[in-house]
Amino acid sequence: MTERVEGHGGALALAALRAYGVREMFTLSGGHVFPLYDAAHTAGFPLYDVRHEQSAVFAAEAVAKLQRRPGLAVLTAGPGVTNGISGLTSAFFNASPVLVLGGRAPQFRWGSGSLQEMDHLPLVAPVTKHAETVFTADDIPRAVCAALTTALTPHRGPVFLDFPLEAIFSVGDADLPAPTPVAPVEPDPDEVTKAARLIAAAARPVIIAGSDVYAGDAVAALREAAEALQVPVFTNGMGRGALPPEHPLAFAKARRVALGDADVVVVVGTPLDFRLSFGDFGDAAVVHVVDAPTQRAGHVQPAASPAGDLRLILSAFADHTGDRADHADWIERLRTAEDAARARDAAEMAADTDPIRPARVYGELRRALAPDAITIGDGGDFVSYAGRYLEPSQPGTWLDPGPYGCLGTGMGYAMGARVSHPDRQICVLMGDGAAGFSLMDVESLVRQRLPVVIVVGNNGIWGLEKHPMRAMYGYDVAADLQPELRYDKVVEALGGAGETVAKAADLGPALGRAFDAGVPYLVNVLTDPADAYPRSSNLA
Question: pTM above the 0.85 mark?
Answer without folding.
Answer: yes
